[in-house]
Amino acid sequence: MGTLEIHTTTGSVRRPLATTTLLGRHLACTWQVPSPHAPLFWVELRWRRRWSWRPLAGDEQTRGPGRIELGGWRALQRGHRILGPGDLALVLTDDAAPEPFVVDMRSMDPIEGDALDQVVEWRSSGFFPVGSEADPDFTTPLEDSQPFQSGGRLLRFHAGQGLTSTVRTPVSVQSSGCEMAVSLRPSPAVQLVDADTSVELTAEFARVAAPYVEARIHDAPLGGWLSLDEAYTRWLDLGGSTDSTRDRMAQDRSRLCRSLAKRGVGAASTLFETRREGVGWQTRVTLPADGLFLDL
Question: Is the pTM of this model over 0.90?
Answer without folding.
Answer: no
